[in-house]
Amino acid sequence: MKVTVIGSGYVGLVTGVCLSDIGHEVKIFDINQHKIKMLESGQVPFYEPGLEKILKRNVKKNNLFFTSQERFAFADTDIVFIAVGTPPGLDGEADLTYVFRAVQNASSYMKENSIIIVKSTVPAGTTEKLNSLCKKLVPNKNLTVASNPEFLREGSAVKDFYKPDRIVIGANNDVIHEKIKSLYALIETEYCLTTPESAEMIKYASNALLAVKISFINEVALLCEEVGADVEEVALGVGKDKRIGSSFLRAGIGYGGSCFPKDTEALIYLASQYNKEMKIVQAAKEVNDRQINWMLDHINQSATQIEHAKIAVLGLAFKPETDDIRESPALRVIDYLLQRKAEVQVFDPKAMPNTKNQYGTTLSYHETVEAAVENTDIVLVLTEWEVIIKHLPAAINSMISKPVIIDGRNCLERIKLNSDIRLVQVGKASEETEFANVEYSINTVSVAKKNIS
Fold first, then answer.
1. Which of 36, 242, 268, 383 is the most exposed, fewest CB within 10 Å of its CB?
2. pTM
3. Catalytic (active site) residue 18
4. Would you list which residues are annotated within the binding site?
5. CATH topology for 2-194?
6. Predicted confidence band of residue 438 (pLDDT cuts 50, 70, 90)
């Protein structure tokens, strides 16, 4: 089929590139001409393992094109995917401006009987509003808007495209279901064929439930510290129950990224519009917002004074295998440290360029773990990159003056560290388990705010 994808961010680019790789002719449209030029030269504007190789392969095969020209993008296509941002407003409401604008612009060029597929995460009822918009704008074209939410995890998005747990398709008739299903004919998986409203809710409910699991185990972790239990052993035992499962039961300093924070807020807001409360989701959000206090408490207990203390921050991305720093807990920690006038030395194998764009020269950037931890008083592990797990123990063991390690991702093994090194981890009993009930005020001190769409 001939496919156009609007948006060259994580969702749009991965979707478009991988669709071209399974035999479709794909055009990726973006109004950002700088991005288009990068993509035409074979460069991916963000880090996603394996994506650049597939992109170059399909450009060479003439399956994949990039454009900012609307007529070229939409005039001769069978299906248009909407993969633009839906950023949260101050009250958590998903901003659908870009979604509606994309449909409005594309529909004016599209041929009759074409399909528009919404990949962007949108509230229930949005697809039907877009159907009504198309009937109003181009009443004679018989365009259909359907929902096909994405479930791509940053860092493993390519793998998730080829081996998804399921593909959800929301449409109002079986003909559209089957047409969209045929797009993925080479993908072996289960299909969930449903209405647009159900498809939209599946996406929000999925992300909300995963957020709840993370916040639940983080609350359990704090209690484990008080009673002398080990949260990793607790999570292992709980996860053996097949009704629960072990995924997303890893304690840490909270979730971040472009999905969970935004989607939980949007779901809470959506419910409020129908006079309903999402009390469990709201609680998960509140727990996540507070979880950073665990790290700040331990920083304050470990430093004689934070002002002028040398503190290493290892890991800046919100998770490993991505350069995405949106809503990363590491940024809240950095903001607090800079507010307290600490000297902050940072390392991340992929996310330092994005961090430099945001913080400029207020941080000291290092190309290796060893350089980042040199002469430090405290070392914070905030992203569980393999390179950090591999190199940090030896780097610390070789230092004459040993810093305290606060492992906010429970990724280090105590046995690999010398016995004179103090290691603090989430949900594991330590000598300091009594903290003042402090609400930290963190001012954002970044030199610029820059999101990756």
1. 242
2. 0.92
3. no
4. 30, 35, 86, 121, 151-154, 203, 248-252, 256, 262, 319, 326, 420
5. Rossmann fold (3.40.50)
6. low
